[in-house]
Structures are given as structure tokens and as C-alpha cells.
Amino acid sequence: MAEDYVNLTVNPCNMCMPMGVVNAFYGIKGAMTILHGSQGCSTYIRRHMATHYNEPIDIASSSLTEQGTVYGGEKNLIKGIENLIKLYNPEVIAIATTCLAETIGEDVARISKTFYETHDCPKVKLIPVPSPGYGGSQYEGYFRALRAIVENTEMNEEKNNKINIITSPISPADTRELKEILEAFKIDYILLPDIADNLDAPRQEKYSRLPYGGTSINDIALMAGAKATIELSTLIKEKYSAGKYLEDNFGVKNYRLNIPRGLRDTDELINLLQRITGREIPKKYKEQRGRYIDAMIDSHKYNAEARVVIYGEPDFVYSTARLCLEIGSMPVLLATGSKCQELKELLNEELKELSENLFAGEYKILDNTDFKNIEKYALELSANLMIGSSDGRRIEEEHGIPLVRMSFPIHDRIGGQRLMTLGYEGSIKLMDSITNSILEAKEKRYRKSIYDKFYKEEGKVMDKKSNIEFEFEAVQEETKISIEEKTKTHPCFSCGSAHKYARIHLPIAPKCNISCNYCLRKYDCPNESRPGVTTEILSPIEALEKYKYVKSKMDNLTVVGIAGPGDSLANFEQTKRTLQLIKNYDKDVTFCLSTNGLMLPFYANDLVELGVTHVTITINAVDPKIGAKVYKYVDYLGTKYIGEEAAEILLNNQLLGLKFLTSKGIVCKINIVMLKGINDGHIEEVVKKVKEYGATITNIMQLIPVKGSVFEEMPLVSNVELMNLRKKCGEHIEQMYHCKQCRADAIGTLENDQSIKFRNFSSKEEENIEKPALRFAVASKSGMLVDKHFGHVSEFYIYEYKDEIVSLIEKRKIDKYCNGVEECDDEEDKITKIMRAIEDCNGVLALRIGDMPLNKLKSKGIEVFITYERIEKAVKNAAKEVLIKNKEKEISNIKEEIV
Question: Rounded to two decimals, what is the model's pTM?
Fold first, then answer.
């Protein structure tokens, strides 16, 4: 199950058996289903089916209540059948049980016989179908219904020339495509079930209460004398197989085939129909097959990029996985909510072969699983595409993994009933959806999404000078003055303050997303003095404590900078948290950071909101051909790019980010490393371009040869060459002449680095300390959301957080603190009882809480979190805040003891 050591399903990847029964009987002419159970069961199924198929769905209910549950529900069921016949006059009634009816032992087969004995209605066929929700999923319910239909129909064993076609759950559009194939071979067939018209009906002038389409009971009776049965299902157990029943009891040969999705399985069906009928394969299917193969060739290079999650009913997962394997898309996760161990046995070898060929790494095949597990493994296995129902949309929204909606149910789109994925034509449509989703995701991640995110309305930057000037005017005068004042005390942006004011570089950003040929990062280096080196990596909390300590020893410290040793935006969460902590402590500090600019379009707006006033961007070329010589690779959104493509991606993002930042009044400095024979003749063009995009100052730096880097043997430009170039470029924009090319952990003025005095600040034993478990009391009505007022709680859900895992421990019953507005103010005894009940908890999560209990809880050291969101997410967020506060207290206490 989803949670380790807990027998718990979180967001199931299946639906209950009665859902499958109702779906199956909608393919029977004149049929209606009555659910023997509570009214909620039929409402749930109607809602699911109606929103997917966009058709009116009628399901009767025996409306079992407490009385029927205790004394038996036979009277309810018989009364329900009577009313159903009176109102609808159906030809067939399916009597499907539910969890409640099965749990109390209702014998619907006997009740059906009793009904026949006591009622004169020979034209109505009653078909009992045992289908408890806990007995399986909608998949088993569907096939159990088909088996019940053939078992309860009086068969005509006289031989005929018909072919029985029994299908796994497919869409109405797929049903029509299958019928078209059969008719093209001129086959006289009996289709079980036939949902083509009943669940995707044309508009009718007069509404029909009963399904007018579908396969009639009279036709089903002829199945016993048919020439053969073709059962389109791979994974259904024989005890639920209608084809197996017909073969065992009437000798009708049963051919079990995979759903005809993809080249191999469509070929198998077409070839079998040819053998059975002795007819030639129709020309149109030969042409369709050729088009499908051609389409596979056209899209194979894109399909190979897909790392696919496929989830749903076993037959859907199996057939779709086989199609993906054919087109070269790697299924990294196959998952079904049904119990189906055969899925792994059938697909493991093929998956292993493709994984080895594509170097795709690990893959998983799960059965009896839920969406919590699917989400977990989709992230672990770096999936970039999902195929299934709309139930996966939460993962799509949360993690940005595109979802191809192809199976029941689809609640957030129109047209689920018209999705066709069978046959050659349907396979092309499914493959095109997969390919186009991969392409769309790539496009969205690049220019369009970046432009839309950062350059709309007030953030929009036009090329015209007047627009840029207008946006500068839009910056508040107070902020403008503040930035100007801060620039005067920034040692890197003001030559006059270089020897007066100090800065501290906090090395909290070890990762980098580009590889420069002149760079080599070091994390434990006390000897070298250059960018990219540090003696330690700090956490955000350690960075705050180090700033506080250095600030107490250095009165002229005015600037906090983040300059590596990697890239500040490649480590954005650490950067963001560090700036937030320091800003809360010192609102007047100047924030500055250095970046290669690759991720600026994503985070530029965040930097503005965080209060960053000065940004340094390293731009070594504005010509991708030259940039390709400077950069070994660019790692952008999980994909590594090389050569001119890498340089172009980096340049576009640098210029987009620069333009946005300067439009918001941020002071931007551009660093340029002068590389002899590569960009030394191109730097003036770089300076002109960055000036055009709003840069304030450029810093042309000499290369520092680093042993182990690609350019370690590159000859240096002379001091004369460097100064001449600076002077020349100074005609276009202000130049920086006082840069010391500092370490990532530099402290002090530019002339007097004192970082050695403050090194090894972080605790080296921290990793060995076991993190404590935290407990939270959650106020919840639903058990899924934090959605209840503290005062209205009669029981708390107690959750534990440890090692980033959230677990439900127990429910604790308590007296309600508040039963109404008039009583809430004088309930001291009750709040005391509540305090005792949750005194072992670190925090309380509630929708709302009054001032009096809030203060009481805080006085006992119990944090209160007011929120409305999923419990698991809320507990994680609360735990992180508690851990941060505990750590801050711990470090503060240690520092007080040292002082």
C-alpha cells in the first residue's frame, strides 16, 4: 500500500465492482441496473459515468437503511424491482450487490427466484451479479457481469455461423471501430457488450428512459451455437471469462486475444478474422497499417524521449504498454489498482530489453496500488509523461508531468466517449497524442512559457525605449532611492566604497547547471583565492547564524552576497530560504547575488520580491558560435545541451532575465571573462548588447588558469590588453576596475579579506544526529483535509512526521471545547482536558481557532497552524517550520554559551 507499515490506500487507482457491472449492462438492450445497497452507491456511479460519457445515466437503488441492514434487505430489493418495472418496463434487470448487501449476506439469486414466484412478469429477465466493492475493482465487476449474463440466459444451442466478440472495457468510439472492422470482413457477429450507441447516443427528439441500443438477450442466447468466440482480454481470470464458460458448456471455441491496440495486437486480430472467414484482408486495413508504420517512423526520435507512466485497468495498461514498446517510448512505471500479478510476468522481458537499449535504467510494475505510490515512483523514475484517466491530474498539476487522458473516467475534459485507440487508426491517434505531448512539454518549458510568465501586463518589457523608461518610472520612488543608497555602500558596485564597506559571501549554493571550460569548483579549499572555491557549504540556518556572528564582529558589514560555489539559482530553495531568514533578522541589509543567468527567467520575479537589489550575471558571449567554445554543456530542466544549442539557450535566458530585472530597477553588473583567442575580440559586442538590455556596469576579468579545467593551459591576456579593452568598452558603459575575483566564502572589504577567521562555522556532526519524530493534532471532518474549527473537534487525527514521511498514528477522542458562540468563552475546564490529550504534540492544525485556546497552546509550547489543505501536505509544511524554529533556538543557545 501507499504508506510504509500502514494498511492504508491513499487516492485509489481503481473503482468498485458495481461500477463495472453498470458499465457492462449499458451494452445490453433494454437493460437497467438496480444496486442492492445504500443510495450513495448509485449516486457515486451515476456521477462518474455521466461526467465521462456526457449521457444521462439511470441506476436504481434498493435504498438499504439501518433497518434493512439489521433485519435483512429483501423487502427493499423487491420493492425496488417493482418500482423499476413500473417506471421503466425494462427487458433486463441486473441486480448488483454492494459492500453493504454482501456483508450482511444477502442472497440476491434466491431473492430473484422469490420475485419470479410472487410476481407475474415473464418478460423481464433478472440477472443477479454478486459485486461487493471489496471483492475487486470495476475491472472484475465488468467481467463478472458478462459472465453472469451468459450464465443466466437460456441458450439456444442450435449451430449458427455467428462469431461471438467479447470485449474488455473499451470506449463507445472503440466499439464502433471494432464493429466496422467486423463488418468489413462481412462477419455475422454478436458483440458483448455493445455500448456504441447507449453511452454515446445521437441527439433524439424524444428522450428514451431505456437504452435503445446494445445487444439483445435474444442475440445473446444464440452465442451457444456460434462458430467461435473471440475474447479481447488478456488478463481476466478464467472464472470471470464469458468465453471460457461458452467453451466449457457449449463447445464454442474461444480465442483469447489482446486488445487490438498497437501494430502487433491489431495484426493478430486482423489475421485471425482472415483465418476464420477465409476472406482477404480489406484493402483499407492494409493501407491503414502502412500509414501507422510510416507514422511510427516519423515520430520515433521524439517517442524515444518519453519516460511513461501508464495506469488504469489491467488490459488497458497491458495493451498501451505494448504500443509504447513498439514505438520506442519507455514505460518506466506500469500500475493498476486491480490485483494482477500476471502483468509483471507478461511484460518484464520486453521492458528489460527496451530499458537496456535506451539506457533508461530502472522501471516498476505495480498491481493493487494507489496514486500515492504512482506519484512516488513517477518522481523517483523521472517520468515525463502519464497515460491514463483524469484521476492522475493531481500529479500533473503538482509536478508538471503531462497527462494523456485515454481511459475511464475523464472528468475534466469533454469527449471521453469519443476517444478511439483501437485498430491501426486508433493506434495512430494514441501515438500522435503521446508524441505531441512530449513535444508540447518541450516547447512549454522554453520560450513561450518564460515569456508569458514574466512579460505580461505590468511586467511586460517592450523593445521600445519609451516603454522601458515608463516601467522605470513605475518603480516606487522610495525603492529607487533605497537602491541608490545601497549602491553607494556596495563595495563591488561603487569604487568609492570598496575600502570602506564589507561584504559577506555565504556559500550555500554548491550545485551548478552549466560547465564553463575555465571553471573548477572546490568545496574544501582553504588555499586558493578565486570564484568557485570555499572551505565549507552552509545550510540556510547556518548561513543566518554566520551572518549574525560576523555582523556582531564587523560594524561596516553592509552586503550579503551569494556567489556559489556553484550557481545561486541552481540552488534556488537554499538561496530563497537564506535570504528570507536574513531579511527577517536585518531589514536594512543589501542583498546581492551572482548567477550564470540560465534560470533567471524562472526566478527573476522572486528575487525582486525577496528584496535583492544587485545582481551580477556572467555573460561571456552574445554569439552562440563563440559561446559554444566557452561552455562544455548546459543542463537545462533536466536535459544536457552542448555546442551552439547550449550557448543559445543560455544566452536567451540571460538576456530575458537581465531585461526583466533592469525593468524592475534592479542594478545589474555583467561579468565577462576575457579568453585569449576565443572572446577577446568579441567582448565589445557583449558590452553593447548588455547595455541595450539595461545593465549598469560591466566587469571584464582576466582568466585565472585552474588546474583540471579545460582551459588550464590557455595563455593569459596581458594587463595592458585588459586595461585597453576596459577603456574601449568604457565608452559604452561604466567599467569596474577594482574587482578581486573573490572566493565564494569571502568576508570583509575587497582589500582585506578576513574569511579565514570565520571558517568551519557549520557543525560537522549534524548529519549523524538522528532527527526526532514530530507529532501533530489535526482537526478534520473528512480525514483528508484540515477543514474543521478547533473548537468543534470531538476527536483529533494524530499524525507523525519523521524523515520526511507523514504517518497517521491514531484518532483521539476529546470533549468539544466549543458547542456554540455563547458557551465558548467560559470553557476553561474543557481546554485543560484538550491540552492534556495533545500535550505530546508539537503542533495543532486547524481551519480556525479562537484567541484564548491559541494563547493557551502557545504557552505550552504547542505551535498552531491555521490552514485549509490536504493533511499530508499541511503536516509536512508545519513540520518544516517547527524544525527550523527548533534549529534556530538550538544554534542561538550555543552561541550564547560561547559568548
Answer: 0.55
